[in-house]
Amino acid sequence: MMTRDQAIEFRRNMEKQAMFAPDDVAVSQPASYPVWSPDAVSYYDGMDSKHPQSKVRGRTHPDRLYKCTAPHTSQESWEPDATPALWTVIDETHAGTVDDPVPAARGMEYEYGLYYLDGEDGNIYLCERSGTAPGEKIILQYLPHELVGQYFTLYTPETV
């Protein structure tokens, strides 16, 4: 039987190893990742050979998994939802169709040609922009309803 200290150490090791998992594996096992901490924790973007890319669960949105996009040391007001320049949402697999749109979040990686559900206004939007091909990706710091006419088109049954 494991002691409490052994269990804590086991959990720490599990979280360290989980950082190496690809996004599609990570999002299927969110409990393997720590909850974001404001307590001066160092987070990494995975661009150096010493540290894997940090992945965390949100404090206010524990159902969301985020990956670090810029190395930094956490501060109280830098929660992933509030700092899209530092964090990107890792989304579970959605088809990106009208029937299965991807839930949109600030600071997430959007893919042209897919449909997104904007949680603030409840509408569905198509990610499209002149001069881009379906499948190209971009990280945007705004929700679809804030970028209509630039990166998104509001879905209506007549637009399909």
Describe the overall structure:
The protein has helices spanning 4-18, 23-26, and strands at residues 42-43, 55-57, 65-68, 72-73, 87-90, 102-103, 108-111, 115-117, 124-127, 137-140, 152-154. It starts with a helix and ends in a 6-residue tail after the last strand. The protein folds into two domains: 4-90, Seminal Fluid Protein  PDC-109 (Domain B) (Ribbon), CATH 2.10.10; 102-159, no CATH class. Strand 8 (115-117) and strand 9 form a beta hairpin. The protein is 12% helix and 22% strand. The chain has two helices and eleven strands. With 160 residues, it is of the alpha+beta class. The strands form four sheets. It has a four-stranded mixed beta sheet with strand order 6-8-9-11, with no helix packed on it.
Give me the side-by-side strand order of the main sheet: 6-8-9-11
Order of helices and strands: HHEEEEEEEEEEE
Query: For the record, what CATH class of the largest domain applies?
Result: Mainly Beta
Mean pLDDT: 89
Q: How far from one another are the termini?
A: 59 Å
Q: How much helix is in the residues?
A: 10-25%
Rough outline: elongated
Q: Total helix count?
A: 2
Radius of gyration: 18 Å
Uncertain segments are: none
Number of domains: 2
How large a portion of the residues is in β-strands, by DSSP E?
15-25%
**Corresponding CATH architecture of the largest domain:** Ribbon
Kindly identify the CATH topology of the largest domain: Seminal Fluid Protein  PDC-109 (Domain B)
User: Mind summarizing the main beta sheet?
Assistant: 4 strands, mixed
